[in-house]
Amino acid sequence: MTFVVPKHAPTAAPFEVKLPSRKTPIAIASAEDVLTGETMAQMSAGDFSFFYDLFDEKDRAAVRALHIKTQLVPLVKAWSGDEGKSDS
Fold first, then answer.
1. By the 8 A CB rule, do 79 and 55 touch?
2. Which tens digits make up the pLDDT trace of 8-38?
3. Is 0.85 topped by the overall pTM?
4. Closest by CA position to 31, among listed 66, 88, 71, 75
5. CA–CA–CA angle 24, 82, 47 (5° rounding)
6. Phi-psi bin for 47: left (phi > 0), alpha (psi -120 to 50), beta?
């Protein structure tokens, strides 16, 4: 039996994030377009640098300052489609 891996067609649908330090949301690439075998291996090894790289240089410090349980984990779960998106 052979499995033919289909080509990936980018969604071109950004994911919007409103950081506490910004008045307006910013758009980052969707998880569907970012998550690959390589990024999954990075995450398994505790390396989330690819996630921070989704943000502009000026916003990275704000993302790195997010609290793990109450801000960062819910953000990553919403971005990855693991939980519903928040409008608050």
1. no
2. 888 778 999 999 989 999 999 999 899 999 9
3. no
4. 75
5. 80
6. beta
